Protein: Lipoprotein
Amino acid sequence: MQIRKMTLMLAALGAMSMVLAGCPDGGRDSLTCTTDADCDASELCLAGANVCVQTCTTSDDCPDSAKKCEAVSGETQMICKCSTTALCQQDERVSDASTLECSGQYSVCVPSGTTGPGPTTCSGSSQSTCSYGQYCSNSTCAAAPVAEATCENFSQNRPQWSATTSNGPVIYTVERAGYEANSSNCQASAPSAFLVRVRAYRTDSDWPSTRAGLSGFFYVTTGSEQLDVVNRGLLVPGTGYNRNTSNPKDAEFNVYLCRPSGSETIQVGFYFTGGNPVCAQINR
Structure:
């Protein structure tokens, strides 16, 4: 009789272990949150969606319900993102995942019927009335660009930046400004110059009135070499720095980068101290 009781007890304990293994967090009632303190240690509270999401370095860190490890929009922080509602409904973090769906706006598992706030309208360019880490694009606040994790310019010594915790200058545009086959600013070994226009805003103070007051602006090569744009003399003489007269927190920087004759394209990386790292491909 004692042996039979012991057998039944062990069976019950085994079943309980399986349940606990299926719900490592004990099967919480909801993923909703308002701050990171509402989430587990390996999670953060995703702004806008207001749900706990798991942080990651690679997809191997993510559960089957949200297997894509990708950056949060406008930041460098990586989180686990979903691809289908069916997979979200296998999320073992909650006791009843049948009410979850994969948000088309945020690509994370959210309670059914969750809608995020609509896009904020704005006017002009630069930061306008948008939050830090955003810029005004076609009258709508959009996330500022951030270099993908695969960008070779930042494969080493990638600057850490977050739209919620950082406060450095924000680059919002990197684009082609021109091309000179034989530039007077370049040497004979690399006579061609790609002219790149970088636009950025800052929130702590105005940009300096002249280029002499500039500092902390870096060009990063595909070999991850960081070059001080101002000290290396990479700004186009005369027109390389232009502070917006009506908004001195907004500025434009024209950089020339010398390359061998016949070069068709260049992969560039830029960032300001404390600001977002940005990659771009500039064609001739």
